[in-house]
Specification:
The chain has 89 residues and is mainly α. It is 70% helix and 0% strand. The radius of gyration is 43 Å and the shape is rod-shaped. It has 1 helix and no strands. The protein has one helix at 27-88. The termini are far apart.
């Protein structure tokens, strides 16, 4: 026998991995996520509505104050005109 004779590889036994556990059902996770998102959305909407009501109240009060000041300014202008007429006469 020749020392240069190639070695014949022995067949390695095939090792099969153990079967994986079945993946958990994602449906309960998704349902819980949807419930949490829905709850958060409802809370955000309620918070936003409350803030918008506050902004609306502030805008109404500001409008009323400006209208009152505008009315007062008109009265003062008329009074100034009367004073100027009297001064010219």
């Amino acid at each position: 026998m020749s020392p240069w004779r190639p070695k014949i590889a022995r067949a390695q036994p095939i090792v099969m991995p153990a079967p994986a556990e079945p993946a958990p059902d994602p449906k309960p996770f998704f349902e819980a996520s949807v419930r949490e998102i829905s709850k958060a959305t409802t809370e955000l909407r309620a918070s936003l509505d409350k803030k918008m009501d506050g902004v609306s109240d502030i805008a109404t009060k500001t409008h009323d104050r400006v209208a009152a000041q505008d009315s007062e300014l008109d009265k003062l202008r008329e009074e100034l005109k009367k004073c100027r007429r009297r001064a010219k006469s």
